Amino acid sequence: MDRPVLEFKEVHKEYDDAEMKLIALSEVNFNVQKNSLNMITGPAGSGKTTLFHLIILMDLPSTGDIFLNNESVLELSLSKRSVLRREKIGTMLRWGNLMPYLTALENIMLPMINKNEQKAIQIMELLEFSKKKDMLPKDLTHFDKQKTAMARALVNEPSLIVADEPFGDLNNEKTIKLMELFHKIKNETTILILSDDNDTNFDKYLDSSFILENGKLIKINKN
Description:
Layout: E1 6-16, E2 21-32, E3 37-41, H1 48-55, E4 63-68, E5 71-72, H2 78-88, E6 89-92, H3 104-109, H4 117-126, H5 142-154, E7 160-164, H6 172-185, E8 190-195, E9 208-213, E10 216-220
Parallel strand pairs: 3-8, 3-9, 6-7, 7-8
Antiparallel strand pairs: 1-2, 1-4, 4-5, 9-10
């Protein structure tokens, strides 16, 4: 088996305030394999935001280690982590986080290291919405905004896409369609979804699933 794309080893994260230490994550261990679709669910306050910031290299653990493509992030300088985040990690956020004055195609191309319009259009075709390439975000449905965010996350051929609450206010039908798209693009990359929604309809699409509760991660065994 190949080495995991992402691996957490005994990761502990705490914050100091004026009166006490807040433990956000405690002894977190997990990994995700290449070309897999994975999900971590947990309620508000469970530690998902802290986990997200660690995965995208915006923060470092208090103790423990994180490996991306078998490389310890603790050994990287701030500038090297920034380069790694841009080149190897794609992100999706709940509201798409699109630039309102750019078209869907221009939003997708925005983070491109090597600008290539045809490549961006091909990704839109893969996600079946290339006819909307010239539309502004205000004219897109929320589902198409998420498709745009997904295409943008894919455009630099990252090792990992991290999607933070990507289902947002989508209805059940669109939520399943978005999950189907995640399942489709795992042939291109590795995907980790963070969500408060643990719909059992997701199970058939996932390679691994975890629950985060009070800063501790529990793996769900799949049949």
